[in-house]
Amino acid sequence: MDEEQASELGEEEVKEGGRRSGSGVNLSVTKTGSIVKAVKNYVKGIGATPQWPIDEAAMDRMESKADVGRIEEMLAAVKKHYISSTDSCSLPLHIAKPEQSIFNIQTHTAFKKMSTLRKQDLIRRRKVIVITDMPVDECDFDEDGLSILAGIDVSVDIQDQSIDVKDGDYSRRLKYGTLRQMLDSSRSANGRILNALNFPLAACDRTPDGGIASDLAAWTLTENTAWCNGFCSLFPTRDVRWGLAANAGAIHWFHIDSDGFGTYVDVVSKNGKKLWLVARPVDNPAAFFRTNLFSLEDYTMEGPNEHKFIIEAILLAPGMRLYMPPNTPHFVITISDAICVGGHFYSSSGIRDTNVALFQAFTSGGHITNTAHAASRVLLRRLAFLWHSNIVLGQNKDSDRAASHVPDFTTWGDVLDLL
User: Fold this and answer.
1) Is the pTM of this model over 0.85?
2) CA pair distance 200, 344, nearest whole angstrom
3) Which of 166-170, 178-182, 186-190, 213-217 has the lowest mean pLDDT?
4) Which residues form the JmjC domain (predicted)?
Protein backbone atom coordinates (compact mmCIF):
# COMPACT_ATOMS: atom_id res chain seq x y z
CA MET A 1 0.00 0.00 0.00
CA ASP A 2 1.44 3.40 -0.97
CA GLU A 3 1.28 6.56 1.14
CA GLU A 4 -1.62 8.01 -0.86
CA GLN A 5 -3.75 4.94 -0.13
CA ALA A 6 -2.75 4.96 3.53
CA SER A 7 -3.60 8.64 3.75
CA GLU A 8 -7.04 7.94 2.31
CA LEU A 9 -7.60 5.26 4.93
CA GLY A 10 -6.52 7.71 7.59
CA GLU A 11 -9.12 10.23 6.41
CA GLU A 12 -11.77 7.51 6.57
CA GLU A 13 -10.72 6.90 10.16
CA VAL A 14 -11.35 10.59 10.89
CA LYS A 15 -14.92 10.20 9.69
CA GLU A 16 -15.37 7.20 11.97
CA GLY A 17 -14.32 9.05 15.09
CA GLY A 18 -10.52 8.90 15.05
CA ARG A 19 -8.23 11.79 14.23
CA ARG A 20 -4.72 12.35 12.95
CA SER A 21 -2.12 12.93 15.62
CA GLY A 22 1.40 13.75 14.57
CA SER A 23 2.81 11.01 12.35
CA GLY A 24 0.04 8.49 12.94
CA VAL A 25 -3.62 8.01 13.72
CA ASN A 26 -4.98 8.74 17.17
CA LEU A 27 -6.26 5.32 18.21
CA SER A 28 -8.05 6.08 21.48
CA VAL A 29 -11.62 5.04 20.63
CA THR A 30 -13.90 3.09 22.98
CA LYS A 31 -14.46 -0.63 22.54
CA THR A 32 -16.93 -3.00 24.19
CA GLY A 33 -17.23 -6.78 24.48
CA SER A 34 -14.49 -9.40 24.66
CA ILE A 35 -12.92 -11.93 22.32
CA VAL A 36 -11.06 -13.45 25.23
CA LYS A 37 -14.31 -14.24 26.98
CA ALA A 38 -14.87 -16.57 24.04
CA VAL A 39 -11.49 -18.26 24.52
CA LYS A 40 -11.19 -17.96 28.30
CA ASN A 41 -12.35 -21.42 29.34
CA TYR A 42 -10.77 -23.03 26.30
CA VAL A 43 -7.31 -21.61 26.86
CA LYS A 44 -7.02 -22.90 30.40
CA GLY A 45 -6.52 -26.41 29.06
CA ILE A 46 -4.42 -25.63 26.03
CA GLY A 47 -0.88 -25.58 27.38
CA ALA A 48 1.26 -28.10 29.21
CA THR A 49 -0.96 -27.94 32.32
CA PRO A 50 -4.77 -28.16 32.73
CA GLN A 51 -4.95 -24.65 34.26
CA TRP A 52 -2.83 -22.22 32.25
CA PRO A 53 -2.36 -18.88 34.09
CA ILE A 54 -4.27 -16.18 32.21
CA ASP A 55 -4.27 -12.46 32.92
CA GLU A 56 -7.95 -11.84 33.72
CA ALA A 57 -7.63 -8.07 33.34
CA ALA A 58 -6.17 -8.48 29.87
CA MET A 59 -9.03 -10.77 28.92
CA ASP A 60 -11.71 -8.30 29.93
CA ARG A 61 -10.40 -5.51 27.70
CA MET A 62 -10.37 -7.55 24.47
CA GLU A 63 -13.05 -6.91 21.88
CA SER A 64 -14.10 -7.10 18.28
CA LYS A 65 -17.85 -7.36 17.83
CA ALA A 66 -17.73 -8.61 14.26
CA ASP A 67 -15.14 -11.28 15.08
CA VAL A 68 -16.38 -12.85 18.33
CA GLY A 69 -18.77 -15.26 16.61
CA ARG A 70 -16.06 -16.43 14.25
CA ILE A 71 -13.67 -17.01 17.16
CA GLU A 72 -16.26 -19.08 18.99
CA GLU A 73 -16.83 -21.12 15.82
CA MET A 74 -13.09 -21.68 15.44
CA LEU A 75 -12.62 -22.81 19.04
CA ALA A 76 -15.61 -25.13 18.80
CA ALA A 77 -13.94 -26.78 15.81
CA VAL A 78 -10.78 -27.27 17.85
CA LYS A 79 -12.60 -28.77 20.83
CA LYS A 80 -14.33 -31.35 18.61
CA HIS A 81 -11.03 -33.21 18.51
CA TYR A 82 -10.38 -33.17 22.25
CA ILE A 83 -10.04 -36.54 23.98
CA SER A 84 -12.03 -37.43 27.10
CA SER A 85 -9.82 -38.34 30.05
CA THR A 86 -10.46 -40.43 33.17
CA ASP A 87 -11.14 -37.37 35.34
CA SER A 88 -14.14 -36.34 33.20
CA CYS A 89 -12.38 -33.49 31.42
CA SER A 90 -11.39 -33.31 27.78
CA LEU A 91 -7.81 -32.64 26.72
CA PRO A 92 -6.22 -31.58 23.43
CA LEU A 93 -4.44 -34.21 21.37
CA HIS A 94 -0.96 -32.91 22.14
CA ILE A 95 -1.59 -33.74 25.81
CA ALA A 96 -3.94 -36.75 25.62
CA LYS A 97 -2.49 -38.54 22.56
CA PRO A 98 0.66 -36.72 21.47
CA GLU A 99 1.51 -39.32 18.83
CA GLN A 100 -1.66 -38.32 16.93
CA SER A 101 -1.14 -34.57 17.24
CA ILE A 102 0.30 -32.22 14.65
CA PHE A 103 2.37 -30.77 17.50
CA ASN A 104 5.65 -32.38 18.52
CA ILE A 105 6.63 -31.00 21.92
CA GLN A 106 10.24 -31.21 23.07
CA THR A 107 12.19 -29.70 25.93
CA HIS A 108 15.04 -27.45 24.91
CA THR A 109 17.57 -29.96 26.25
CA ALA A 110 16.03 -32.91 24.38
CA PHE A 111 15.77 -30.94 21.15
CA LYS A 112 19.43 -29.90 21.26
CA LYS A 113 20.41 -33.56 21.56
CA MET A 114 18.21 -34.60 18.64
CA SER A 115 20.03 -35.45 15.41
CA THR A 116 19.75 -33.24 12.35
CA LEU A 117 18.26 -36.19 10.46
CA ARG A 118 15.51 -36.57 13.07
CA LYS A 119 14.71 -32.84 12.98
CA GLN A 120 14.47 -32.91 9.20
CA ASP A 121 12.16 -35.92 9.44
CA LEU A 122 9.77 -33.99 11.70
CA ILE A 123 9.53 -31.23 9.09
CA ARG A 124 8.99 -33.82 6.34
CA ARG A 125 6.09 -35.23 8.36
CA ARG A 126 4.67 -31.69 8.70
CA LYS A 127 5.00 -31.66 12.46
CA VAL A 128 4.79 -28.29 14.19
CA ILE A 129 7.63 -28.45 16.71
CA VAL A 130 7.17 -26.69 20.04
CA ILE A 131 10.24 -26.27 22.24
CA THR A 132 9.71 -25.69 25.97
CA ASP A 133 12.10 -24.45 28.67
CA MET A 134 13.90 -22.21 26.18
CA PRO A 135 16.33 -19.69 27.69
CA VAL A 136 14.84 -16.28 27.07
CA ASP A 137 15.76 -12.69 27.90
CA GLU A 138 12.31 -11.46 28.77
CA CYS A 139 11.29 -7.85 28.32
CA ASP A 140 8.28 -5.88 29.44
CA PHE A 141 5.59 -4.62 27.08
CA ASP A 142 6.78 -1.05 27.57
CA GLU A 143 8.96 1.60 25.95
CA ASP A 144 12.15 -0.45 26.44
CA GLY A 145 10.64 -3.73 25.31
CA LEU A 146 9.04 -2.33 22.16
CA SER A 147 12.28 -0.60 21.21
CA ILE A 148 13.65 -4.08 20.45
CA LEU A 149 11.54 -3.88 17.30
CA ALA A 150 11.85 -0.25 16.18
CA GLY A 151 11.87 3.34 17.36
CA ILE A 152 8.64 3.74 19.29
CA ASP A 153 7.84 7.08 17.63
CA VAL A 154 8.52 5.90 14.07
CA SER A 155 5.45 5.48 11.85
CA VAL A 156 4.85 1.87 10.85
CA ASP A 157 2.04 -0.19 9.35
CA ILE A 158 -0.47 -1.10 12.05
CA GLN A 159 -3.68 -3.07 11.74
CA ASP A 160 -6.47 -1.47 13.76
CA GLN A 161 -8.71 -4.46 14.40
CA SER A 162 -11.31 -2.40 16.22
CA ILE A 163 -12.51 -1.20 12.80
CA ASP A 164 -15.36 -3.21 11.30
CA VAL A 165 -14.68 -4.91 7.98
CA LYS A 166 -17.10 -4.09 5.16
CA ASP A 167 -17.61 -6.38 2.16
CA GLY A 168 -14.51 -8.37 3.04
CA ASP A 169 -12.24 -5.32 2.67
CA TYR A 170 -9.61 -5.80 5.38
CA SER A 171 -7.51 -2.94 3.99
CA ARG A 172 -9.82 -0.63 5.98
CA ARG A 173 -7.92 -1.78 9.07
CA LEU A 174 -4.46 -0.90 7.76
CA LYS A 175 -3.21 2.40 9.21
CA TYR A 176 -0.01 4.24 9.93
CA GLY A 177 0.72 4.51 13.63
CA THR A 178 3.52 4.19 16.16
CA LEU A 179 4.51 1.70 18.81
CA ARG A 180 3.91 4.43 21.36
CA GLN A 181 0.27 4.47 20.31
CA MET A 182 0.15 0.69 20.66
CA LEU A 183 1.61 1.01 24.15
CA ASP A 184 -0.91 3.70 25.09
CA SER A 185 -3.67 1.42 23.84
CA SER A 186 -2.42 -1.44 26.00
CA ARG A 187 -2.58 0.79 29.07
CA SER A 188 -6.13 1.97 28.46
CA ALA A 189 -9.27 0.03 29.30
CA ASN A 190 -10.81 1.61 26.20
CA GLY A 191 -7.78 1.15 23.96
CA ARG A 192 -7.81 -0.14 20.42
CA ILE A 193 -6.85 -3.67 19.35
CA LEU A 194 -3.67 -3.10 17.34
CA ASN A 195 -1.49 -5.60 15.48
CA ALA A 196 1.86 -4.74 13.88
CA LEU A 197 3.59 -7.41 11.78
CA ASN A 198 6.23 -5.56 9.79
CA PHE A 199 9.42 -5.15 11.80
CA PRO A 200 12.41 -6.38 9.77
CA LEU A 201 15.32 -7.10 12.11
CA ALA A 202 18.41 -6.75 9.94
CA ALA A 203 20.74 -7.12 12.93
CA CYS A 204 18.84 -9.94 14.64
CA ASP A 205 21.01 -12.48 16.45
CA ARG A 206 18.21 -15.02 16.97
CA THR A 207 18.73 -17.82 14.48
CA PRO A 208 16.74 -21.00 13.94
CA ASP A 209 18.20 -24.35 14.92
CA GLY A 210 20.84 -25.53 12.44
CA GLY A 211 19.21 -28.93 12.18
CA ILE A 212 15.96 -27.34 10.99
CA ALA A 213 17.19 -24.49 8.79
CA SER A 214 18.74 -25.97 5.65
CA ASP A 215 19.12 -22.48 4.19
CA LEU A 216 21.58 -21.60 6.96
CA ALA A 217 23.52 -24.82 6.48
CA ALA A 218 23.64 -24.24 2.72
CA TRP A 219 24.81 -20.67 3.16
CA THR A 220 27.70 -21.74 5.38
CA LEU A 221 28.74 -24.79 3.37
CA THR A 222 28.75 -23.03 -0.01
CA GLU A 223 30.34 -19.76 1.09
CA ASN A 224 33.46 -18.73 -0.88
CA THR A 225 32.59 -21.00 -3.78
CA ALA A 226 31.80 -19.82 -7.30
CA TRP A 227 28.60 -17.76 -7.36
CA CYS A 228 28.27 -18.10 -3.59
CA ASN A 229 30.24 -15.34 -1.93
CA GLY A 230 30.06 -11.78 -0.69
CA PHE A 231 30.51 -10.41 -4.19
CA CYS A 232 27.34 -12.16 -5.34
CA SER A 233 24.91 -11.59 -2.48
CA LEU A 234 24.71 -11.13 1.26
CA PHE A 235 22.50 -13.17 3.55
CA PRO A 236 19.05 -11.49 3.40
CA THR A 237 18.65 -11.07 7.15
CA ARG A 238 16.19 -8.23 6.79
CA ASP A 239 13.78 -10.51 4.93
CA VAL A 240 14.00 -13.57 7.16
CA ARG A 241 14.37 -12.14 10.68
CA TRP A 242 11.55 -10.05 12.07
CA GLY A 243 9.55 -8.98 15.09
CA LEU A 244 5.85 -8.66 15.91
CA ALA A 245 3.89 -6.61 18.43
CA ALA A 246 0.21 -6.90 19.25
CA ASN A 247 -2.34 -5.81 21.81
CA ALA A 248 -4.53 -8.35 23.57
CA GLY A 249 -7.32 -9.44 21.25
CA ALA A 250 -5.42 -9.08 17.97
CA ILE A 251 -6.24 -11.74 15.39
CA HIS A 252 -4.48 -13.02 12.29
CA TRP A 253 -6.92 -15.08 10.22
CA PHE A 254 -6.02 -18.32 8.45
CA HIS A 255 -3.07 -17.93 6.09
CA ILE A 256 0.17 -19.59 5.03
CA ASP A 257 3.48 -17.80 5.25
CA SER A 258 4.98 -16.28 2.14
CA ASP A 259 7.46 -17.66 -0.37
CA GLY A 260 7.21 -21.27 0.80
CA PHE A 261 8.96 -20.43 4.05
CA GLY A 262 8.86 -22.34 7.29
CA THR A 263 8.52 -20.11 10.35
CA TYR A 264 9.84 -19.96 13.89
CA VAL A 265 8.70 -17.59 16.62
CA ASP A 266 9.56 -16.77 20.24
CA VAL A 267 7.36 -14.80 22.64
CA VAL A 268 9.80 -12.50 24.46
CA SER A 269 7.60 -10.16 26.52
CA LYS A 270 6.71 -11.05 30.10
CA ASN A 271 3.18 -12.43 30.34
CA GLY A 272 2.85 -12.29 26.55
CA LYS A 273 0.72 -15.12 25.17
CA LYS A 274 -0.46 -16.16 21.72
CA LEU A 275 -2.94 -18.90 20.93
CA TRP A 276 -1.57 -20.62 17.82
CA LEU A 277 -4.12 -22.62 15.80
CA VAL A 278 -2.79 -24.93 13.09
CA ALA A 279 -4.67 -26.86 10.40
CA ARG A 280 -3.97 -30.32 9.03
CA PRO A 281 -5.88 -32.26 6.34
CA VAL A 282 -9.09 -34.02 7.32
CA ASP A 283 -8.20 -37.30 5.62
CA ASN A 284 -5.65 -37.47 2.80
CA PRO A 285 -2.20 -36.37 4.09
CA ALA A 286 -1.40 -35.09 0.59
CA ALA A 287 -4.50 -32.86 0.50
CA PHE A 288 -2.44 -29.71 1.05
CA PHE A 289 -0.66 -30.41 -2.25
CA ARG A 290 -3.89 -29.71 -4.13
CA THR A 291 -3.70 -26.54 -6.18
CA ASN A 292 -7.32 -25.63 -5.39
CA LEU A 293 -6.87 -25.85 -1.61
CA PHE A 294 -7.50 -22.13 -1.13
CA SER A 295 -10.03 -21.62 -3.92
CA LEU A 296 -12.57 -18.92 -3.16
CA GLU A 297 -15.43 -21.32 -3.85
CA ASP A 298 -14.93 -23.46 -0.73
CA TYR A 299 -12.40 -21.72 1.51
CA THR A 300 -12.77 -18.78 3.88
CA MET A 301 -9.87 -17.33 5.82
CA GLU A 302 -12.17 -16.33 8.73
CA GLY A 303 -13.70 -19.78 9.19
CA PRO A 304 -12.63 -23.23 10.40
CA ASN A 305 -13.12 -24.85 6.96
CA GLU A 306 -13.98 -28.12 8.67
CA HIS A 307 -14.59 -29.87 5.36
CA LYS A 308 -10.84 -29.46 4.71
CA PHE A 309 -9.14 -28.85 8.06
CA ILE A 310 -8.70 -30.49 11.43
CA ILE A 311 -7.58 -27.69 13.73
CA GLU A 312 -5.36 -28.00 16.78
CA ALA A 313 -4.14 -25.22 19.04
CA ILE A 314 -1.46 -24.51 21.61
CA LEU A 315 -0.74 -21.55 23.85
CA LEU A 316 2.68 -19.97 23.33
CA ALA A 317 4.31 -18.12 26.22
CA PRO A 318 7.83 -16.89 27.06
CA GLY A 319 10.29 -19.78 27.17
CA MET A 320 8.63 -21.56 24.23
CA ARG A 321 9.61 -21.61 20.56
CA LEU A 322 7.46 -22.83 17.69
CA TYR A 323 8.84 -24.23 14.41
CA MET A 324 6.19 -24.48 11.70
CA PRO A 325 6.76 -26.23 8.34
CA PRO A 326 5.98 -24.48 5.05
CA ASN A 327 2.48 -24.57 3.55
CA THR A 328 0.87 -24.79 7.01
CA PRO A 329 -2.43 -22.89 7.36
CA HIS A 330 -2.49 -21.20 10.76
CA PHE A 331 -4.57 -18.73 12.74
CA VAL A 332 -3.29 -16.64 15.66
CA ILE A 333 -5.02 -14.91 18.57
CA THR A 334 -3.03 -12.65 20.90
CA ILE A 335 -4.24 -13.47 24.41
CA SER A 336 -2.25 -10.77 26.22
CA ASP A 337 -0.07 -7.91 24.95
CA ALA A 338 2.88 -9.61 23.29
CA ILE A 339 6.22 -8.89 21.65
CA CYS A 340 7.59 -11.70 19.50
CA VAL A 341 10.83 -12.24 17.62
CA GLY A 342 11.20 -14.86 14.93
CA GLY A 343 12.00 -15.57 11.34
CA HIS A 344 11.71 -17.77 8.29
CA PHE A 345 13.71 -20.74 7.05
CA TYR A 346 13.84 -23.38 4.34
CA SER A 347 14.23 -27.08 5.15
CA SER A 348 15.40 -29.55 2.53
CA SER A 349 12.94 -32.11 3.85
CA GLY A 350 10.07 -29.66 3.40
CA ILE A 351 10.99 -28.64 -0.15
CA ARG A 352 7.86 -30.16 -1.71
CA ASP A 353 5.67 -28.15 0.63
CA THR A 354 7.79 -25.11 -0.19
CA ASN A 355 7.14 -25.57 -3.91
CA VAL A 356 3.41 -26.00 -3.36
CA ALA A 357 3.27 -22.93 -1.12
CA LEU A 358 5.13 -20.87 -3.74
CA PHE A 359 2.50 -21.87 -6.28
CA GLN A 360 -0.37 -21.19 -3.88
CA ALA A 361 0.98 -17.71 -3.12
CA PHE A 362 1.45 -17.01 -6.83
CA THR A 363 -2.10 -18.00 -7.75
CA SER A 364 -3.99 -16.79 -4.66
CA GLY A 365 -1.79 -13.89 -3.56
CA GLY A 366 -3.18 -11.72 -0.78
CA HIS A 367 -6.04 -14.16 -0.19
CA ILE A 368 -3.74 -16.56 1.65
CA THR A 369 -0.60 -14.60 2.60
CA ASN A 370 0.23 -11.02 3.50
CA THR A 371 3.66 -10.28 2.04
CA ALA A 372 6.40 -11.44 -0.34
CA HIS A 373 10.20 -11.58 -0.20
CA ALA A 374 12.08 -11.52 -3.49
CA ALA A 375 15.30 -12.25 -1.60
CA SER A 376 13.95 -15.71 -0.77
CA ARG A 377 15.13 -16.90 -4.18
CA VAL A 378 18.74 -16.29 -3.17
CA LEU A 379 18.31 -18.79 -0.34
CA LEU A 380 16.75 -21.37 -2.63
CA ARG A 381 19.61 -21.01 -5.11
CA ARG A 382 22.16 -21.55 -2.35
CA LEU A 383 20.28 -24.66 -1.27
CA ALA A 384 20.43 -25.95 -4.85
CA PHE A 385 24.17 -25.25 -4.92
CA LEU A 386 24.60 -27.30 -1.73
CA TRP A 387 22.74 -30.23 -3.27
CA HIS A 388 24.86 -30.01 -6.43
CA SER A 389 28.12 -29.85 -4.50
CA ASN A 390 27.18 -32.93 -2.48
CA ILE A 391 25.43 -35.08 -5.10
CA VAL A 392 27.45 -34.21 -8.21
CA LEU A 393 30.81 -33.02 -6.87
CA GLY A 394 30.91 -35.35 -3.88
CA GLN A 395 31.73 -32.62 -1.37
CA ASN A 396 30.94 -32.73 2.36
CA LYS A 397 30.12 -36.45 2.10
CA ASP A 398 31.71 -37.23 5.46
CA SER A 399 29.62 -34.74 7.42
CA ASP A 400 26.34 -36.07 8.76
CA ARG A 401 25.37 -32.50 9.59
CA ALA A 402 25.76 -31.50 5.93
CA ALA A 403 24.39 -34.71 4.41
CA SER A 404 21.17 -34.43 6.43
CA HIS A 405 20.28 -31.34 4.39
CA VAL A 406 20.75 -33.15 1.05
CA PRO A 407 18.28 -35.60 -0.55
CA ASP A 408 19.16 -39.25 -0.01
CA PHE A 409 18.70 -41.19 -3.26
CA THR A 410 18.17 -44.44 -1.36
CA THR A 411 14.71 -43.25 -0.25
CA TRP A 412 11.80 -42.60 -2.60
CA GLY A 413 10.64 -39.58 -0.60
CA ASP A 414 13.97 -37.82 -1.05
CA VAL A 415 13.97 -38.62 -4.77
CA LEU A 416 10.61 -36.84 -4.98
CA ASP A 417 12.08 -33.92 -3.04
CA LEU A 418 14.80 -33.52 -5.66
CA LEU A 419 12.37 -33.82 -8.55
Assistant:
1) no
2) 12
3) 166-170
4) 205-362
